[in-house]
Amino acid sequence: MWGWFHKWSSPRWFYQLSGRLLPWLAVLTALTLVAGVAWGLLFVPPDYKQGNSFRIIYIHVPAAAVAMAGYMVMAVAGAISLIWRIKLADMVMKCCAPIGAALTFLALVTGAIWGKPTWGTWWVWDARITSVLVLFFLYVGVLALYEAFDNKEAAGRACAILALVGAVNIPVIYWSVEWWYSLHQPASISFTGESSIHPSMLRPLILTIIGFYSFFAVSLLLFVRNEILNRERNTRWVRELILADSKV
Amino acid sequence: MHPLRRQRLMIVLFIVMAAGLAVALLGYALRQNINLFYPPSAIAAGEAPVGRDIRAGGMVLEGSIQRAADSLDVSFIVTDYQANVPVTYTGILPDLFSEGEGVVVAGQLDDQGVFRASQVLAKHDENYMPPEVSDALEKARPEG
Predict the structure, then answer these.
(1) Chain A interface residues facing chain B, Cβ-Cβ under 8 Å?
(2) Which of A44, A144, A211, B15 lies in disulfide reach of A32, CB 3.0 to 4.6 Å?
(3) Is residue A13 assigned to a domain?
(4) Residue B14 contacts by C-beta under 8 Å, 6 or more apart in sequence?
(5) What is the complex's ipTM, to 2 decimals?
(6) What is the pTM of this model?
């Protein structure tokens, strides 16, 4: 178990493994996103009340779901780097922030675009929408805090603490529509009972959700590989890698 | 586990628990203010302040919408099937506004118990289905 753990924490080993994994994940991302979006936008029947405007669900829901899951990845990576001082965990934490911020922004913008015709307003300070805005600020906060330190080790520790404290926001977002009266509707997808979205609309949604998760994984691996090369640029294996590349 | 790492693990758990406790207390203290709107039964029970900007939310009672013939004035009743609140509004209503649908109105309660709305928002529920399915459900529903 510990041997496996140490192997995982080696940037060099991670670089090699992620290189083998990336093409498969990229293909999975392209297939699920293209199929899910085409199916959702072109072939699924319109909603009985909202007509065609409901189709933004195929972007909005996956973006919001992965933005929250990505935050948990960031917080767990932060905890690992705090406890075990593993450099790779610190890199993963740092690299989650820009991707998560972009996805949260996408969820907020698509929600506003849908809210205008459906609710009659772009924005309302209800519990769900406000807590997602806080999520966006947390991501941006981690990004800014990391850059604010000259000492990268101190930066990593400060960001990990911020990420851990902010993790409280994730259950608040998730259950905000149950705990308080809000304008945002409760979840349509149920893991335990029957979903309140018709199966013909749910299937492409599941595809795009898988696609967004896979997109997050691809972007995270690319960001982390970049970070590894940057931080380990003075090591022998990176120099050998670059020399081998330049010969081809 | 190395004692130093165990100590750091404890610190991490402490941070998460302290943050969770702080947010739980904050949510408990603000529990009324985080609600976006008052349900009609709370307004009927006198929990909502009169003459202050508040929101009320519920369903538009079927058969209660009355439009003025010569202006954009509209009046309707918001209900949670326990209490009713009469609402007046002047302006254009959102697409999804109709009888039997969810609605959130912003405005002030006057001393007659009438809600003078300055904004009407349609509240969408979590149901998504194609029109044919909703027609079939409508037909299958027993009369009355």
Answers:
(1) 44-50, 54, 57, 79, 82-84, 117-121, 124-127, 161, 164-169, 172, 179-183, 185-188, 196-198, 200-201
(2) A211
(3) no
(4) none
(5) 0.80
(6) 0.89
